[in-house]
Fold this sequence. Notes:
The chain is of the alpha/beta class.
Amino acid sequence: MKTEIGVIGLGVMGKSLSRNLARNGFKLSIYNRHVDGKEESIAVDFKREYPELEQALPFDDLNAFVQSMERPRKIILMVNAGPAVDAVLGSLRDILETEDIVIDGGNSHFEDTNRRIDSMKEQGLVFIGAGISGGEEGALKGPSIMPSGDQEAYLKVQKYLESIAAKDGDGNPCCTYVGRQGSGHFVKMIHNGIEYVEMQLLAECYSILKNQRQSNDEIAMVFESWMKDLGSYLLGITVEILRKKEGDKYLLDNILDKAGNKGTGKWATVSIADSGEPATMIPAALFARYLSFFKEKREAAASVFSTIGAGDDISTLRLKEAYQFSRIINHHQGFSIIARVSDQNNWNVDLSEIARIWTEGCIIKSDFMKELVEHLKRDDSILFNEKLSQIIKKTYTSIQSAAIECIRRELHIPCLLEAINFFHGIKTANSSANLIQAQRDYFGAHTYQRIDAPPGNSYHTQW
Ligand code: 6PG
């Protein structure tokens, strides 16, 4: 008896996904490499540990693993993004047969996915890039899945991915065919960018309340009260984090303030720059993490430059509205970059569908995301949605006064500031870029266009 589907790579995510597949009744082959003294009989031990894997076939021999599956084979790759994916594909290529399908469920770069799709195709093999969000728990209980590549081949794996995915409010799977090429991994990368900003905004609100002498429990209470109108997974876990104690001490207070990253925020920032879309909050969140890493420099600068930090307290209502304003701008920018790159590559990504598969299973699931599903059916731009533009107008004075007080208090709030700054920029009908054009023409004869002449004509002046 051959199995229906296989999983390669039994790290945390691979294991959870395998259990999810098995719980959904699929006949499964599982494989983990053998490395003497380091990774030994991983698949066999894993199968023993969980009753739902009773029917699963465990392997540490790649050839035997591949031969155990019915054709066309369907293999989900859950290995680290980067060279590890190419290494496994290199070994698989010699064993797989025409029309076999490999699904990369890691956080791969979408351009790597483009390349892999093409090179596998040359050999008659199919490669599908699938962004998967939701962490360990999501992978086990239902992640949000963003697959892309050849649509016909996708139909052959659709039932597996849809079965293991989270379900939205209407019971539909949080899994959709995103588009051609590596569009699925691109969309997942932007998901992570939005995630960076949502996390950073919460960190900034926390820093403001902390600066206003609120205890972790008090901050947790404030955030908890926001759940009713602005509920999200990230807000919810932040409340729990704030309350977590070790003995009589808050755990959070003992965590070193250096934020790590695994690279998707950096890739998103590079893509934003490449695409020409002014999605400015993701870079701001990324650089906030980078800055956090300079702990020793920050300590040295703190001793050189004293902080006076006088400013009025920001009320929790104002802060809530500033946070709400910033989240709208974050989602506006996130969906705009997806729309822009989708257009540039003819991917035809359906923004409302992306919002829908992000309503459950993923890290940025939120009540706001649920609202966006409808909004994005009508308007591509969140900023110009009638209801949201009303909220932006209503909350504007709150972010303005919060930003002013934060500057007076000398607080580092890059994402809150970027939200209001972007907003000022996007609603400036006549900007100062005329001066930039004049400067470029002055020193480099780069030419400029005139507003008193037909568009498209270029002019140069001997300054
Ligand atoms: C998810 C997460 C997940 C992970 C990333 C981001 O959607 O499940 O985004 O992919 O948390 O690795 O990690 P960094 O913060 O380390 O870049």
